[in-house]
Amino acid sequence: MLTRKTIPLAVLLFLMGLAACAQTNPPAGEAVTMDFESYNPPSTLVVPEHPLTRSRFPFIDVHSHHYRMGTQDLDKLIREMDELNMGIIVNLSGRGGKELEDMLNNVKKYGYEDRIAIFTNVNFEGMDAPDWSANAVRQLETDVKNGARGLKIYKSLGLSVKDKSGNFVAIDDPRIDPVWAKCGELGIPVLIHAADPAQFWQPHDANNERWLELKTHPRRKRTDTDPAPWATLIQQQHNVFRKHPNTTFINAHMGWFANDLGKLGELLDAMPNMYVEIGAIIAELGRQPRAANRFFEKYQDRVLFGKDSYVPQEYHTYFRVLETADEYFPYYKKYHAFWSMYGLELPDEILQKLYYKNALKIIPGLDGSRFP
């Protein structure tokens, strides 16, 4: 009986090569077996292509995160923005207090107050203290006085923030009401991210459109008790919008209704103080170009441009979806969207509102001089 010790190394390598070829090149008529993660063939469709690296109009990105802006090389950031034709970037990760001041001072030191806006955040620790609400409002007032242009609420509210008893704090917890009301008084918007895509709460099976994302990122999976049903979290968010009609809310990621634009339209009709932004959901719009065009036509005054994670080359896909009439081109992350997309070819008037006019309308203190 031959063993590895009795087979010369060269022969062993030759046999291993034959085995590999047999796996990758099976005999004619024999099917190849692979997992779904590996199947990602390039399209053979031959159609006109118009990839873009700059937007047609200068734009404001209302959803970006730069956690180290207090020490960041802002010259590099501005060069990248100029290459994209980004006029203003909104850093939602201002944190508040001393960290916010450090960021604002760094922006001032570089001389980019006209290019960079920063939102502050709320610290939900110690919510059980009787003076938490008053302290949170006081800090918000200070942050705005120092230069914050708005308030960002992370999805941790509703998903992970707990009180001292270990109970999850609801998005519509009445202790936060003074914060929402103060934002209205100060004239600043609240950009709020609530929950995550509904599919994260659904069974992780063959009927789940986010199966691949949950396979590659299993910690994103949720259940009705972890921490609550999806519909409950979304309803809590809407309760806040309705309770505070004098405060402007920007619903991040189109409120997770980009796959149901009819429902999103109903929500916009019902809550005139709610705006939406398109961060991380461009693939949803790109797979329904006709429905998306109708949506933008009707709600052109209520949608803002946002990207979320700051990766310069990924903006190119957003420009292509929004501006061109290209057909059947891929998203840049298969696990987010395994389907192909189509360009919306939005008219200039709607593009300008999406790219900058709507943001200039609701975010105070932005310099509009570089926009047409």
Name given to the CATH homologous superfamily: Metal-dependent hydrolases
Distance between the termini: 81 Å
Q: What is the CATH topology descriptor?
A: TIM Barrel
Structural class: alpha/beta
Low-confidence stretches: 1-7, 9-16, 18-24
What is the strand arrangement across the widest sheet?
4-5-6-7-8
What number of structural domains do the residues give?
A: 1
Order of secondary-structure elements: HEHEHEHEHHEHHEHEHHEHEEH
Helix run count: 13
Instruction: Compute the number of strand runs.
Output: 10
CATH class: Alpha Beta
Overall mean pLDDT stands at 93
- So, CATH architecture? Alpha-Beta Barrel
Determine the fraction of residues in helical runs and give it as a percent range.
25-40%
Q: Compute the gyration radius: what is it?
A: 24 Å
Which strand-content bin applies to the residues?
A: 5-15%
Sketch the major β-sheet.
5 strands, parallel
Description:
- Helix 4 (132-146) packs parallel to helix 6.
- This protein has a five-stranded parallel sheet with strand order 4-5-6-7-8.
- The chain has one domain (59-362): Metal-dependent hydrolases (TIM Barrel), CATH 3.20.20.140.
- By secondary structure, the chain is an alpha/beta fold.
- The longest helix has 16 residues, at 9-24.
- The N and C termini lie far apart (81 Å).
- It has 13 helices and ten strands.
- It is globular.
